[in-house]
Structure formats: structure tokens, C-alpha cells
């Protein structure tokens, strides 16, 4: 093979590579990996919340022994929430996502009841360990909200990539096995305004 034919082959390979990279071939895998990374952030923050709960329950137990039902509900909700796993391969299954979200919502409700119980115990409300745990839990809830928002945006971008031109050409050919990812939905009671009592 002569030098000029080698050069033409190299130029042809470079041009094919550049045309593939400029035509959106990498858009679908990039959007998918971004959504998977955002999902990992969501899971990380839910895990952080689950890790804080045993310490919070132990602190409350010392002050509010008669609130055993509330403490038991939190422990059971945590156990259920940590049993429901959704990995990146299941992000296209809306039923699995709903199952995960329902378990997390149940845990959020139980935690809300636990924190409401603390209002009845002035000694508990002033306990430094309880205050620190409560603050960490509130910060974690904020992190969860941000991680969920980022995941929702990444899923929106991924799903749009599968449905818009020119990347939809790749989605119908090379990446035809890729399905839209499921998203978080607002819980049923999110549309109901909270009752305000004075």
C-alpha cells in the first residue's frame, strides 16, 4: 500500500469519526449516563437519610418512651424503604419507580410524625444530639429535593434525545433497545394544601 493510499485511508477514518461525532451519535449514551449519575445522587441522599434514622430514633426513645407506635412506624418504614432498590437498568420501569417512591414517601411521613412528637417533649427539643440530628435530616431532605430535581431534568433531556431529530435516527437504529426512563411523580397528597390550625 502506497503512502498516498494510507494517507487517504487515515483521512477517511478521521472524516467518518468527525461526521459521527457531529451527527449526534454520542448524544444518547451521554444523556443516559448523565441520568444514571443523577439517579446515583438520588440514591446516595436517600441512603444518607436512612443512615441518620437509627440515631434519631435512639435519641427520641430516651425521652419519649410512650411514643412507641411512632418509633415503630419509623423503623418499619425505614426497613421497607431500604428494601426497595432501583438500579440504573430499572429506570425505564415506571412500576418499579413508583414502588421506590411510595416506600420513600411512607418513610417521609413516618419521619414527619416522629419530628412532630418532639414538640411534646421540651427536654428532647433542647437536646443537642437531637437538634444536630434534626438539622442533618433537614439538610438531607433538601439534598434529596435537589437530587430529585436534577434527576428529573436529566431524564427529561434523555427522553427528549430519544424523540428529537437527529438523535432519534440513532434511537431507531443503533440504540433501538433504549427506552424512555421513568420519572418521579408528585405523591397523591402533594396537590392537597396543608391544613393550617391556629
Overview of this structure, please?
With 198 residues, the protein is mostly helical. It has one domain (25-185): Up-down Bundle (de novo design (two linked rop proteins)). Helices cover 72% and strands 0% of the residues. The chain contains 7 helices and no strands. The protein has helices at residues 3-22, 27-63, 68-83, 94-117, 122-125, 128-163, 167-172. Helix 3 (68-83) runs antiparallel to helix 4. The protein is elongated, with a radius of gyration of 24 Å. The N and C termini lie far apart (89 Å).
CATH architecture: Up-down Bundle
Fraction of residues in helices? Answer: over 70%
Query: In CATH's first tier, which class applies?
Result: Mainly Alpha
Round the Cα radius of gyration to an integer and report it.
Answer: 24 Å
Instruction: Give the overall silhouette.
Output: elongated
CATH superfamily: LemA-like domain
Quote the beta fraction: under 5%
Mean pLDDT: 86
Order of helices and strands: HHHHHHH
Helix/strand/pairing category: mainly alpha
CATH third-tier fold name: de novo design (two linked rop proteins)
Counted by DSSP, the helix tally is: 7
Could you describe the largest sheet, including whether it forms a barrel? Answer: none
What count of domains describes the coordinates?
1
| Alpha carbon gap, first and last residue | 89 Å
- Number of DSSP-assigned strands: 0
Please provide a brief summary of the model.
With about 200 residues, the chain is mostly helical.
Which helices and strands, and how do they pair?
Blueprint: H1 3-22, H2 27-63, H3 68-83, H4 94-117, H5 122-125, H6 128-163, H7 167-172
Helix pairs in contact: 2-3, 2-6, 3-4
Amino acid at each position: 500500500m502506497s503512502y498516498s493510499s494510507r494517507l487517504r485511508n487515515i483521512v477517511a477514518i478521521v472524516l467518518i469519526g468527525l461526521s459521527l461525532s457531529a451527527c449526534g451519535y454520542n448524544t444518547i449514551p451521554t444523556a443516559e449516563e448523565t441520568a444514571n449519575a443523577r439517579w446515583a445522587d438520588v440514591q446516595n441522599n436517600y441512603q444518607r437519610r436512612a443512615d441518620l434514622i437509627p440515631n434519631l430514633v435512639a435519641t427520641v426513645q430516651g425521652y419519649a418512651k410512650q411514643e412507641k407506635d411512632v418509633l415503630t412506624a419509623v423503623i418499619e418504614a425505614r426497613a421497607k424503604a431500604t428494601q426497595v432498590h432501583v438500579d440504573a437498568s430499572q429506570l425505564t420501569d415506571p412500576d418499579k419507580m413508583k414502588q421506590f417512591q411510595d416506600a420513600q414517601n411512607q418513610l417521609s411521613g413516618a419521619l414527619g410524625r416522629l419530628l412532630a412528637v418532639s414538640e411534646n417533649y421540651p427536654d428532647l427539643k433542647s437536646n443537642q444530639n437531637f437538634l444536630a440530628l434534626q438539622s442533618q435530616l433537614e439538610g438531607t431532605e433538601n439534598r434529596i429535593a435537589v437530587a430529585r430535581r436534577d434527576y428529573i431534568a436529566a431524564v427529561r433531556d434523555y427522553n427528549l434525545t430519544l424523540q428529537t431529530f437527529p438523535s432519534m435516527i440513532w434511537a431507531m437504529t443503533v440504540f433501538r433497545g433504549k427506552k424512555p426512563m421513568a420519572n418521579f411523580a408528585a405523591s397523591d397528597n402533594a396537590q392537597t394544601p396543608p391544613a393550617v390550625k391556629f
